[in-house]
Specification:
alpha/beta; Nucleotidyltransferase, domain 5; 2 domains; six-stranded mixed beta sheet; 7 helices
């Protein structure tokens, strides 16, 4: 299983996970108690930024502030990045040998990162399924220039990163570690006022991941107060975490299309459960619309009793990806 973009295996009783999302940044320190993962510290703040932007100064300031709340001197620190910073792709590739397949995947990534002038691209891939005439391949990738900038930002702020992951891999790791996705495919909808992504997972495998937010969605402008969006030079205020009413039907429709594609086109076992996470996961309108339209069990992301919270402040739908990064079995080399 592809666990990280860059990998080195370690095992330690306490680890730190850091998540840089689309609108917030979170740090979590995780240990173990009686064989069960235990969240020891968590710290999170809004981090407004433009898509594809790495706000180095604001990230560094957050890290320096977070160090006062969460000890970052763990033996293993894993960073997980939003999909606009480190992309995930699902490719249909010809049945080739290992070296030829790697070269073919690299060529496909030129289209994935065609808006980026930075080359080369760091990537890892795995074959999800072998068909008689093709492979279905999962790829995680990031431009090397961006990778170095990210690592330098953290190092200069006094936090060495040992591993990097993409969000959907971290999420698969979390649900696998807590046994939530072992028996059947499970969908997770990560949703905020200006973005939405759906992930389909089983065990520790990422089966499908795609955006469910309309392409022309209003984007949070970097430096604007949380909840203020801009469009064509005008601004309007949206309550924190509340989805714009016009976006709700679109998200539900696109989630349904994704599940249909997964079941019909990939000839896969149907998804019966859907978890909600992210900034807008507690929008009261969303669960009912999803249940009615998709005929699924819908609930906020949880790990049952498989995860202990010693902080009293853990909000799993908002903090899950930092916890997931800390729970990663493997740590990847970040150099």
């Amino acid at each position: 299983m592809l666990r990280s973009l860059l990998r080195r295996r370690k095992r330690h009783p306490e680890t730190v996970g850091i998540h840089v999302g689309r609108g917030a940044m979170t740090v979590a320190r995780v240990g173990s108690a009686k064989g069960k993962p235990c969240v020891l510290n968590v710290f999170s703040e809004a981090l407004p930024r433009r898509p594809d932007e790495w706000p180095a100064e604001r990230v560094a300031a957050f890290v320096r502030k977070a160090r006062k709340a969460v000890p970052l001197q763990a033996a293993s620190v894993t960073l997980t990045l939003a999909s606009d910073l480190a992309a995930t792709s699902f490719l249909d590739m010809p049945c080739l040998g290992a070296d030829q397949l790697a070269e073919a995947v690299a060529l496909e990534l030129d289209d994935v990162w065609k808006r980026e002038s930075d080359r080369p691209i760091s990537y890892q891939f795995e074959i999800l399924h072998s068909y008689p005439d093709r492979y279905r391949v999962f790829v995680a990738s990031i431009p090397m220039t961006r990778l170095r900038l990210i690592l330098t930002t953290f190092a200069d702020a006094g936090c060495k990163i040992d591993a990097m992951e993409v969000e959907t891999v971290s999420l698969a790791n979390l649900l696998s570690a807590t046994g939530a996705a072992d028996s059947a495919p499970l969908a997770v909808l990560d949703v905020g006022p200006t973005w939405g992504e759906i992930h389909i997972l089983k065990g520790d495998k990422v089966l499908l991941s795609r955006s469910v937010m309309k392409a022309d969605v209003e984007e949070v402008s970097a430096g604007s107060p949380k909840g203020t969006t801009s469009n064509a030079g005008s601004t309007r205020t949206v309550p924190n975490g509340v989805l714009p009413t016009t976006r709700l039907p679109w998200i539900v429709q696109e989630a349904g299309k994704t599940l249909d594609y997964f079941e019909i086109e990939l000839v896969a076992q149907p998804v019966e459960r859907l978890f909600l996470m992210g900034e807008s996961s507690q929008d009261a309108r969303l669960p009912g619309m999803l249940r009615d339209d998709l005929s699924l069990d819908v609930e906020l992301l949880n790990c049952g009793g498989a995860l202990e919270d010693r902080t009293g402040d853990l909000d799993l739908p908002h903090h899950a990806l930092a916890v997931a990064a800390a729970l990663s079995e493997g740590a990847g080399r970040a150099d």
